Amino acid sequence: MPVSRDLLSRTLRTPDIVTHFSIGKWDLLIRQARAADLLAHLAHRFRQRGLTAAIPAMACWHFDAAETLADKQHIALRWALLQLRDALAEIGSPLVVLKSSTYVTVNPSTAEEQRFNGIDILVPHGRLPLAESVLERAHWHALGLSEYDQRYRRRWMHQAAPMQHPQRAVVVNVHHAVPSDRAHAPLDAARLRHRAIAVDNFPGVHVLAVEDRVLHAATHLFHDGELSHGLRDLTDLDLLLLDAAVEADFWTRLVARASELQLGRSLFYALRYLRYFLDTPIPASVFTALHDSTPNRVTLALMDSIFTRALAPVHASCADAYTPAARLAAFGRAHWLRMPAHQLLPHLFHQAYIRTTLDNNPPKAA
Amino acid sequence: MKLLQLSPVELRQQLAGAGVWLRTGPFSLKLQSRIPSVAEGLAKLYGQFEVRNPHEAFADFHVAINPPSRLRRWLRPQVEFSFDGVQPFKPLPFDQAFPMLESGLNWCISNQAHHYLILHAAAVEKNGLAAILLAPPGSGKSTLTAGLVHAGWRLLSDELTLIDRKTGLIQALPRPIRLKNQSIDVIQQLVPDVPITRASRDTINGSIAYMRPPRESVRCQHETARPGWVISPQWVADAHTKLTPRSPAQTFMLLAQNASNYSQLGADGFHVGTTLIDQTACYDFGYSQLPGAIAAFDRLADSAIPA
Questions:
Q1: Domain boundaries, chain B
Q2: A27 to B57: CB separation less than 8 angstroms, yes or no
Q3: pLDDT < 70: residue spans in chain B
């Protein structure tokens, strides 16, 4: 498989190429990075590589401003995590954080370069109502979703309505299960929870074991449907893998765990597109070991044509004539895996026609 | 090259094609639009602004303002603002194309330019010192600004005052001044020969028209200004012109509330804000008549000239 050709992923693979960039290339890089939510990440990468001086003077502020926002987000998330930890102490099960919020706790140096929108936490299925009422009492209020959306999220996305504290911008997503590779069959989250590990510098906070973190991120990528920041999520995974692969037996453990949880297919796709976009160093033996999870050639060709487009930055310069169809296909696939057809069709009808008529807020001020 | 050097046909063609490259204050824009009223608005208000070859390679903001769909061309036509392919607002009636462009540009700056502390405030300068006009909407801020800049004050900004985080100086952003409802007539009577756009009616803020920024202010848009005063104006019917000192602490609170990115800047937002308050004199300002108000500002500027 070749590698992606958009300017942003080329720059992420080999940052040194920016020293030869024309001003027009910088214009395009900034636009693609902003669309992909990777401006702050790029700024950090450039600093690490001593490339900051290569940024033309007129373009510098875009990177500075993005880093300012990322710093603020980081502080807000750490604060919110402390509040959540204290609020949830009474539900009697350890606080497990998921997805990119993990970086804030586990590896602050990686977190510097990431941007987060919210905190994802995992609670035992049976304690979801308790967790929600505890959070309500601590002034985390469910964001105004319709009854329908709330039911949908609970039943098919395995999470409660996002909750927000009135004084903070951070949004909390409370999950009670995680998606799996088997259609309509979420993975019992207890299997992930019991291997969760405590975070040294954040007493009372836990994260998934490193293989589970990779698998969960990979699964989410191919089950989320709305891949508005696909490349950013891949970048998260890339950093996680670079850190984890320091341990010699990591890849073996990862493949074994994937087959144990039956998440081999998602792992296969994630690694495939990590290579395609970011050239993540993945031993060839890993792909051999994942042989049983490899789809047949036709499926693979189809998946490639979908995900090489759908995971690219959402920017006109990264799209071709098939991109809209590819994004629609990724969206459809995620829903197909999430819910059975006899429920999917009414749901899509609701999303397309009923929601838009209900959602007629007045336009924003001119 | 200045925008007024483009012929109306060239301007319309560039705008509808690759887009016009335009500089406003410290920012460069690539603006694309097929809408004639946008071309007219630009020709009327942005004549003094620098334009470059449309193939200029770099722009801070790539924006477009166009009808969202061809289907609605005849039935209640609409207009939509895009920032590099993203639509942050819902479409508005077609008549509001120019106001939507102006507020769209403000949105771009407020959401991106975090190398400044961004105040939702007007700022004018005389004798090297700037007065920041800080007040809630409806206080007569823009009317006062429009009056002052046609009485010898330099326009730094009408809606977004940019405080450089490193130097504490004000970065000029002289764009058209937004006038609402009765103030459109007030200003037309005060300075009858200054171009003002046709009013867009029935916007969420009533009628809105834009006034051309003074030529001299646009010419000096690269010169920064030192903050001298933070003034909270309040138009009150039949009130006497009155300038009363205001507590710096309270003024700081007002400033923080009106800084759109105060919380994003974290500790630095506090630092930049308090430094600004420390070096300025803070006032409440009540007025009802523009001539008296302008005279009061002139006295303030004259009293501050270093001996």
A1: 3-112, 116-303
A2: yes
A3: 70-74, 305-307
Q: Does residue A228 sit within a domain?
A: yes
Task: Look at residue A184 in the predicted model and tell me its pLDDT.
Answer: 63
pTM of the model: 0.90
A151-205 per-position pLDDT tens digit: 777 766 677 778 887 777 788 888 887 777 766 667 778 888 889 999 888 888 8
Beta strands in A77-226 (DSSP E): 95-98, 118-122, 141-142, 163-164, 171-175, 197-198, 205-207
In chain B, residues 39-78 whose CB comes closer than 8 Å to chain A: 57-60, 62
A366 within some domain: no
Nearest to B80 by CA among A354, A243, A363, A140: A363
| Structural domain total, chain A | 1
Residues of B in contact with A315 (CB under 8 A): 84-85
Strand A171-175 versus strand A118-122 pairing type: parallel
> Which pLDDT value is given to residue A359?
43
Contact A59 B59 (CB under 8 A): no
Q: Per the domain annotation, does A253 fall within a domain? A: yes
Q: Which residue segment(s) compose the domain that A232 sits in?
A: 7-358
State ipTM.
0.92
Residue B196 per-residue DSSP state? B
Kindly indicate the confidence band of residue A133, based on its pLDDT and cuts at 50, 70 and 90.
Answer: confident
C-alpha separations of A208 from A35, A182, A188, A256 in Å: 29, 21, 14, 16
